[in-house]
Amino acid sequence: MRVLMTAFIVAVMLFAFSATAKAQQAKTSDLQYIAQALSAAPAAVAKGAAVVRMGDDGSMTTVRAGNNGFTCMVMGTDRICNDANSMEFIHALLKHAPPPNKVGVSYMLAGDKGASNTDPYATGKTADNHWIVTGPHIMLFGPPAKTLGYTEAKDPDPTKPYMMWAGTPYEHAMIPVGPAKSTPKKQ
What pTM did the predictor assign? Predict the structure, then answer.
């Protein structure tokens, strides 16, 4: 019963997150959206990258065609640019399916707003889900990423390489490439 209740709560939260993201994206013109999505990647990659918007059902609508094998998008408030293998990995994650046995790379040069470091399906910070915010970084997916020897700590230093979602099928390497943007301190 508890498993069913947890699954129901996760489904409701994912629906709410998806609806919020869709409403936010609808307010953004294609040109604004393209600029936001491309900010995830280095200029040389962004130049030839496709840009897509994700629908509530996980479907992708192409906003701009690309020619270099990378696809950039905005997921919630995070910006990400993926090679084809990383796109397969993300699709597997969204569908709760086994990830591909391929090496992939993703850029998140705008950093992220945070995620659980232990639960791939967490939609918000809790007292025990090891929420972590990482500044500009790249992600490496696939079996070779697991052999890098990076820390698998639940609460790693996000300014150093670490493994996200260690011990799950979706484990991947997080590699910071620049300082996190500072946020004003509350007084």
Answer: 0.79
